[in-house]
Design brief:
Helix content: 10-25%
Number of helices: 22
Structural class: alpha+beta
Shape: globular
Distance between the termini: 15 Å
Strand content: 15-25%
Radius of gyration: 28 Å
Number of strands: 36
Amino acid sequence: MPNPPAYEPFTLSSGGGGGDPVLFSGDRRAHGRLLRRELEDALPPENDEPIDRGTYVTFVSFPGFEIALESLDPQGSGEQPELISVGRDSTNDGVAQLATVYIPDGKREYFFKRLDAYVESLATKSLKNAKLVEGIREIRRATLRELWTDPYELYPTDGEAHWWEVWLRRRDGGELARFTNFTGVLGLSTSPHYLGFAERTVVLVRATLAQLSEAFESLDDIAELRRPHDVASLLPSLPANEQIDWVRELEGRVRPAGPDAPSVCILDTGVHRTHPLLVDSLHASDEHVADQAWLLRAVLGHGTEMAGLALYGDLQAAVLSEHDVALQHRLESVKILPDQGSNSRDIYGAITARSVDRPEIEAPGRQRVFMLAVTAPRPKRPSGADPTKLERYEAGKPTSWSATIDALAFGRAIDDTDVKLTYLDRDEPPTPRLFVISAGNIVDPVATDNHLDRSDLEQVEDPAQAWNALAVGAYTDRDDMSGAHPAFSGYTPIAPRGELSPVSRTSVLFNKSKWPFKPDVVAEGGNVASSPDGSSVDTPENLAVLTTRLQEPGGGYFTTTRDTSAATAQVASIAADVQANYPGLRPETIRALVVHSAEWTPAMRAQFNQDEAKTARSMLLRRYGMGVPSLNRALRSATDALTLVAEARIQPYERDGGTAKGKVRQMNLHELPWPTEQLQDLGNTDVRLRVTLSYFVEPNPSDRGWTGRYRYPSHGLRFATKRPEDSVENFRKRINKRARDAGAKPASLDTEVGWWFGSNQQQSAGSLHTDIWTGPAIDLASKGAIAVYPVAGWWKDRPQYDQSDRGVEYSLVVSIEAPSVEVDLWTPVSQQIETPVVITS
């Protein structure tokens, strides 16, 4: 759509209040005085000689209540009390919130004054600081455990040395040096790389609890402790017969893409570049390693297996075809894992950032899709632990790795001039990147399980929860055992055709109000078969996916692979081909088009049809995403289908004068070139409208409650479509309070029917929102206007970091389909626009 949207000043139509006040039923005066005494006990005696130190203090909420976190974290000039981390503790009475604050010695009066003012105001009609004071049950001196923001069940207490992920707060630039000097004196092992965000530096250290406690007592720099990542074991190469004649025949039909074509950059174990089916698409200068001490050549097979699918998409179809294979993109490879031994402990966010930097330096002008099929599993549940706690606390929470992916996708620059510290620089204008990441695999499927129930209980692995990444799960169309090896006689495929693969993970357990839907899409990942007696499972090659093999002496050229890794490589191939066909489109748009092209299989639709409630549908969305993407649907046109794309920019927030509190700033109104007459002529024929809004957010990875100024996303955007009974003017007034006359209210309308998910998807967390409306064509004829508007994010409440003045980019994809009739929807639209951005499906 070549015409830009009309933008206008904006105020949310329905303002949110501060929520219900805390209902305190106890003795307020006694409570305020008790908290004051507890604060006095938590703080050490003041020194006569001023020193640059402070104290960590933990505020504990009443069970079931949340503390007014922003009141613990004043934003004045100079050194102030700082909210460090927020955790939760399960008690017999419910879950209590634990907020840990660093209080500089010179700022302890900040809290004493608020407690005193609360007690003194009890004699007046105006109660002061009630929201803060009445939410706190206890104040105590913080211990190291209070800085642990992962599930408490995983907190190491055995006295042994463990690897810890330590988050240092940035305050004077010397925190990393102080910490590494301390660990050096004790002879502690640390990671070879460090990762820097705007407010945090992340490092790994191997230490006992006592040693880390000593660091906590000696330094004022530690903000959070988390468990480190364990990268999942990679699939071993599976043997295959030598197929040299097939290789040569396919070689003769392949036409590689040119050197300036887009690429899929495979972040994995390296690629066997000289494989005859890969060599013309992977130049020697496009092979890289994250660590210069590693071998450049591939030693492990997983990366080469991914390369065959990332390049060809469906390699089996290419082998069996009689036609030429015109490749539209190329490959790049960065080895991100060592070749021998167990994976060394490191900051995988820093390794990923450095790996992204390598090809961008080598070929800075090339478009690329970054593909990552290496994930870290969720923690094993400790023996005897409550089986629900890890899911409740852990599911969907960002990590340093997933936040790095989000920062890189948003476009943050990579500063790795320091050989150890990788800093994600936010001073330069962002250059967005597209990441395609596997959802992770269930490594121990059980034949007797309901595999869909099992998948719903197994959350996607780190870093697939990244908001800005395109996360890929696996489904399968492979349910035929007729070609199986005789050893698998009597085995039965577990998943029926078109269903989720038995190994694919989901986001059903994610906190629904905080974390996005994952996976976004699914692709072929093969199947698993049950033994005749149901006692075991296996992975016959006929249920897997054909791909290229790491060549070894006496080995073949082909092997099979499977699971979400294989699915991810195929989706990355689709994304790169979309880039090749439309080289001017932004990464946000490529992501939107891939998701917009996805369709649910009949087996998936049958699950949706069992329960038409929107909440149930949203749970299935967390299992299947939007279904199986298609390159043809993303690129091609049929006369009964039309897709329009808008790429625009919006400034989300502003401030009045010098106030720190921000407010939403701007709404964009897209009036679309619409086939109005053709839709009116269809009358009551059912048609389908699909809308996808895609944008990237800047992450705020520190765990300080994930609300208010501590929200994870920098900003949020939403879309709203015009109702059939609305004029454009009334639609504007309905969405934008600032478009109305003072005191005026919009006309009330019944809840709009026809949306597949409704607010469960359109208003959900995440940076991609898509939904489908089905209804009479005559109603759709008057729905040709869409508003895009901002909602809350951490930029709004943090003026020193807000980059709203630069604007943020988004992509809007809108399609109309009339599948049951033959009608030309494209031609009338093409006549309304002079130079359209044409993406049709």
